[in-house]
């Protein structure tokens, strides 16, 4: 009897073993992929910052290809371009200048490559040389050629089915499940990091606005010092306009206290329960003043990564103080005029109209009528602001207030310096009263502060006035070709003018000149000084 050959059984065993080996390899490969993705996922859970994300990605991709490089690009707020977010050139050599240029560039999404990746659910492979040969002269293709990258894989980064960017990867072997798993984790991490950065930015912005409001709240609300005739007129105008919603224009030299008067108007108004908001128009670049005043929408311009509320919105149902309004650029004046006329505005880059209830107080040390004639200030805006002008007198016309102002500042800065209450000697006070004060009240305040710090006792017996500042055109004009008697006559007339014709008593010309009142009368009679020459100006 013939027995069947056993060779077919041997062949079957071989096939079975081969199948088992392949199944085992697939299982091992699957386990390695799972292990890789699990490790990557565990590492990603600790990621909080962009730098931490870069370190985790670099470690993971080095396991896939020790020499490969990558770049992650994220979509810009304009929705039309992408910019590099993270990158690693791997072990390749490259032109640093070209690399920096490409990384800084905004790459259009619709460039023939990136849009195809974003429309695909799987990774796409591109041959660098072939794309260049087709005429795709994209800067990043030129860079990859310079880096000697032959092929590049592009994978979309998505969060909740929305494209947020893409990953370009130089890698020899494409493992679709691995790449898709990596990109899912990266997408989530980037979204979380961006969200955290926005939260931190909002927090800093709120802190800055809170500090601003605290500064406004704790700033000087002290009583306005001065009871002379010039200030009495200012008080009368304040009392007339405070209760209304009319726009006020404060005019006066630098240092005359325009902000203090603005606060007094606000504090006496029905809006006093809310804080007055201040904007210094001279302190901001022309490119930023519109954003500062009217706010901006996210993506309105480079760097506008979120919506920002402007000072007009912040001052809604309150008062907005526009200091140094004469420095505002013409293009911003147009938008300001519209807000004043229409009581509404749009944020920079916005489309919706925002209704406003803001009382505006503007201030300037410029002659706005002259600025209008010179074409530097819009006439229609000037007339809109000049509803209720208040002219603040310079300190040289308030000689009768200098003693009270000096006492106020002495008390304030003695306390700040931790010294006992200080006083000023009669001689030093006469120095202050005979000074021209080009810097007005602010100059007096700074002088008293400096004098308090320099004083060794509790009496200021001498003040150190700036000779250069004390020079003025009127005094300088006395010198050439004049006799001593003519100079004395002119100086007495000048002092009498500053004292509003007051000859004797506190704040009178005799006290400033440090001579008895009857002596001054005699000099005036001798020099033939008439009342018309010094009184009534």
TrEMBL record:
GO terms for molecular function: ATP binding; sequence-specific DNA binding. GO terms for biological process: regulation of DNA-templated transcription. InterPro entries: AAA+_ATPase, AAA_lid_NorR, GAF-like_dom_sf, Homeodomain-like_sf, HTH_Fis, P-loop_NTPase, Sigma_54_int, Sigma_54_int_dom_ATP-bd_1. PROSITE patterns: SIGMA54_INTERACT_1, SIGMA54_INTERACT_3, SIGMA54_INTERACT_4. Residues 224-453 form the Sigma-54 factor interaction domain. SMART domains: AAA. Keywords: ATP-binding, Nucleotide-binding, Transcription, Transcription regulation. Pfam families: AAA_lid_14, HTH_8, Sigma54_activat. This is Sigma 54-interacting transcriptional regulator.
């Amino acid at each position: 009897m013939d027995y069947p050959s056993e060779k077919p059984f041997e062949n079957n065993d071989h096939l079975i073993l081969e199948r088992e080996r392949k199944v085992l390899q697939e299982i091992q490969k699957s386990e390695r992929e799972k292990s890789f993705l699990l490790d990557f996922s565990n590492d990603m859970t600790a990621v909080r910052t962009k730098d931490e994300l870069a370190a985790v990605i670099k470690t993971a991709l080095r396991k896939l290809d020790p020499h490969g490089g990558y770049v992650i690009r994220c979509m810009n707020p304009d929705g039309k371009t992408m910019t590099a977010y993270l990158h690693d050139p791997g072990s390749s050599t490259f032109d640093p200048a070209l690399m920096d240029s490409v990384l800084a560039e905004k790459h259009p999404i619709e460039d023939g490559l990136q849009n195809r990746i974003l429309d695909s659910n799987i990774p796409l492979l591109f041959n660098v040389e072939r794309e260049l040969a087709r005429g795709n002269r994209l800067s990043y293709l030129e860079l990859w050629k310079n880096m000697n990258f032959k092929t590049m894989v592009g994978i979309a980064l998505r969060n909740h089915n929305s494209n947020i960017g893409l990953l370009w990867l130089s890698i020899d072997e494409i493992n679709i499940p691995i790449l898709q798993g990596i990109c899912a984790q990266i997408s989530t991490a980037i979204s979380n990091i961006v969200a955290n950065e926005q939260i931190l930015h909002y927090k800093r912005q709120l802190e800055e606005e809170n500090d601003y409001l605290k500064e406004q709240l704790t700033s000087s609300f002290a009583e306005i010092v001065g009871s002379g005739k010039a200030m009495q007129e200012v008080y009368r105008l304040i009392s007339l306009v405070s209760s209304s919603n009319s726009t006020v224009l404060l005019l006066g030299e630098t240092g005359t206290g325009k902000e203090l008067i603005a606060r007094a108007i606000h504090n006496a108004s029905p809006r006093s329960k809310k804080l007055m908001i201040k904007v210094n128009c001279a302190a901001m670049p022309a490119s930023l003043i519109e954003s500062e005043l009217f706010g901006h929408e996210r993506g309105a311009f480079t760097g506008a990564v979120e919506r920002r509320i402007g000072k007009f919105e912040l001052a809604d149902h309150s008062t907005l103080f526009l200091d140094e309004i004469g420095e505002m650029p013409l293009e911003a004046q147009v938008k300001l005029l519209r807000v004043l006329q229409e009581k509404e505005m749009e944020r920079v880059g916005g489309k919706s109209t925002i209704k406003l209830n803001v009382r505006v107080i503007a201030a300037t040390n410029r002659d706005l009528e002259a600025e209008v004639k010179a074409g530097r200030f819009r006439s229609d805006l000037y007339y809109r602001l000049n509803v209720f002008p208040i002219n603040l007198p310079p300190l040289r016309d308030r000689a009768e207030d200098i003693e009270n102002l000096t006492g106020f500042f002495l008390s304030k800065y003695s306390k700040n310096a931790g010294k006992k209450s200080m006083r000023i000697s009669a001689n030093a006070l006469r120095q202050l009263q005979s000074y021209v004060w080009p810097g007005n009240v602010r100059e007096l305040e700074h002088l008293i502060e400096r004098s308090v710090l320099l004083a060794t006792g509790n009496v200021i017996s001498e003040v150190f006035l700036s000779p250069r500042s004390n020079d003025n055109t009127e005094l300088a004009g006395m010198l050439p070709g004049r006799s001593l008697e003519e100079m004395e006559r002119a100086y007495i007339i000048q002092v009498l003018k500053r004292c509003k014709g007051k000859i004797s008593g506190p704040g009178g010309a005799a006290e400033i000149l440090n001579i008895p009142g009857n002596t001054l009368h005699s000099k005036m009679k001798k020099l033939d000084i008439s009342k018309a020459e010094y009184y009534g100006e």
